[in-house]
Amino acid sequence: MPEIETERLRLRMFSPDDAGDFYRIVRDAEFRKYLPPQFSPTPESVAAAIPRILAHWRERGYGQWALSLKESGEFIGYCGLRFLPDTEEVEVLYGIDGPHWNKGLVTEAAQAALRFGFEQSGLERIIALAHPENVGTRRVMEKAGLRYEKDAVYFEMVCAYYALDREGYRPDDAPYLPR
Question: Which terminus in the chain has less CB density within 10 A, N or C?
Answer without folding.
Answer: C
